[in-house]
Write a structure and sequence with these properties.
By secondary structure, this protein is mainly alpha-helical. It contains 19 helices and no strands.
Length: about 500
């Protein structure tokens, strides 16, 4: 009986703790992940490029600013509802099937939005895109934990972080250029083209590395998840538009109460929708909180910076988008560096470096005024974009690497859900602080709207730096266990494998 080289390799030392979940060897793992990389980039690009289209949508469909805001809120709401269920879905459905379903939803949504004759139809297509993004985000991270060997997890997360962090930088630039040259419909047409590419790459290259255990379905948990996360995300997203109105307060209260019930149920039932026991592991919980803080800081800055360039410094949206590109390039490089350096040095020192750079860059934003030079802004933005990846990628790699393989999908879902909820809260808080700063400027006798916006932005930047300070405090609790799992001899029947 002849035995090929692959079979012989399987007869060698195998990491027993990873056998049920992780393929022992996958050639060209980045090629395997290509479709999901494109999918997540598309989702984040869609999430961050929509703000610039809102004025045109208001004009074309004749809707108010509060109504058109649902293009953003509805997208985040769909993500918030779907995300917590993905870890459970991956235990029932093949990861490849789930990813292709998500991308098909995005493609259909993009086509619907491209030709939408009315605003409700446009919003329906947008929600379909949000469902897709909510699925592919945790699926990508769960797959990374199985496709890559343990000693390359940091570098792999660096590539994933590059995909996520680069999209918010180029999104406004691409959207502005397409609107200027064609119309807002061209943005959704572009999304459709990229979705087709992602579908092809996923169908050709992606494998199904996640074991399906098919646990029982707890319907009450599914309902509680949808209601709790949906109300919470909708509530915090509407604060900037409606303030703490009775509707917003009601949504927040219902969201918190239902989520408290949901969390208690997940910790007590035999087959939880989302295994929250991962949060009981300090080596996961601590860096997960740090990731959420750094992501929230990023969204707060990304919300304030382009607006300050336009309304504070008087620049056009196209120029503002172009000025953010240098920071985006630096962010991409540092994201990759942070992932690779984590594999060698662990998280703690990288996080400290990232905090220092973010604080320096954030402090420089306080020096920006209505007559500041473009060079000062670029310098401040670039320094912040150096610091954030070292915090986020290092902490994220530490969190995911700390979990046993059977909890990887749940851990990825938990962390992505925390990021989306914290990001929504951070954007709402930054908006409120911006308004507070503007009101204080006017109350003090100021009559220059541009300077008032600059003053208000500083309140938001201070909030972002406070989030970084929280990440710094938690960094002292990080445990630096960088040893790879030990290989344990496992007996494998070669004849059965070769049969």
């Amino acid at each position: 009986m002849s035995v090929d080289k692959t079979t012989v390799r399987k007869n060698q030392l195998i990491d027993a703790s990873f056998v049920p979940d992780r393929p022992h060897h996958i050639d060209h793992p980045h090629k395997v992940m290509l479709g999901l990389y494109i999918s997540v980039f598309l989702g984040m690009l869609s999430e961050t490029s929509m703000n610039i289209t809102l004025p045109d949508l208001m004009t074309d469909f004749g809707v108010s600013s509060g109504t058109v805001q649902w293009m953003v809120v509805g997208y985040m709401l769909a993500i918030g509802v779907v995300l917590p269920c993905v870890g459970f879905l991956l235990k029932w459905v093949k990861a490849k099937t789930l990813a292709l379903f998500a991308l098909t939803c995005f493609l259909i949504g993009a086509i619907v939005c491209t030709f939408a004759p009315t605003f409700p139809i446009l919003l329906a297509g947008r929600i379909a895109q949000g469902i897709s993004t909510g699925i592919v985000l945790p699926t990508m991270y769960a797959a990374i934990m199985r496709v890559f060997p343990p000693h390359k997890i940091g570098a792999a997360n660096g590539v994933a972080g590059l995909v996520i962090m680069f999209a918010p930088v180029i999104g406004p630039t691409i959207a502005g250029a397409l609107i200027g040259a064609l119309s807002w419909r061209a943005i959704f047409a572009l999304f459709a083209v990229v979705a087709v590419i992602a579908i092809v790459c996923t169908a050709l290259f992606f494998i199904t590395p996640i074991e399906r255990t098919r646990p029982s379905v707890d319907v009450l948990s599914v309902i509680a998840s949808a209601v709790g996360f949906g109300c919470l995300v909708a509530g915090v997203s509407l604060i900037s538009d409606m303030g703490f109105s009775p509707v917003v307060i009601g949504l927040l209260v219902v969201g918190v109460l239902v989520l408290a019930f949901y969390a208690r149920r997940q910790l007590t039932i035999a087959s939880p929708l989302l295994d929250l026991h991962a949060l009981g592991i300090a080596a996961f919980r601590v860096p997960a909180i740090m990731v959420s803080c750094s992501f929230a800081c990023t969204l707060a800055f990304m919300y304030l910076v382009p607006q300050e360039l336009q309304r504070g410094l008087g620049l056009s949206s196209t120029v503002a988008g172009l000025l953010m590109l240098p920071g985006g390039v630096v962010n991409a490089i540092c994201t990759l560096m942070a992932g690779r350096l984590f594999d060698r040095h662990g998280a703690k020192r990288l996080v400290w470096f990232g905090v220092a750079m973010t604080v320096i860059g954030g402090a420089m934003f306080f020096a920006i005024g209505t007559d500041s030079t473009i060079a000062l802004f670029i310098a401040a933005h670039v320094i912040v974009m150096v610091g954030i990846p070292f915090i986020q990628q290092s902490a994220q790699s530490a969190a995911l690497k700390s979990l046993p393989m059977h909890m990887a999908a749940d851990g990825s879902t938990i962390m992505n859900t925390m990021q989306q909820v914290c990001g929504a809260i951070a954007t709402a808080v930054a908006t409120c602080l911006l308004g507070l700063g503007q009101m204080r400027y006017v109350a003090a006798g100021g009559d220059n709207p541009a300077q008032g916006f600059v003053d208000g932005s500083r309140y938001g930047y201070l909030f972002g730096l406070a989030l970084v300070a929280v990440a710094l405090l938690f960094s002292f609790l990080l445990s630096e266990h960088t040893d790879e799992p030990k290989l344990v001899p496992v007996h494998v029947d070669i004849e059965k494998l070769a049969a």
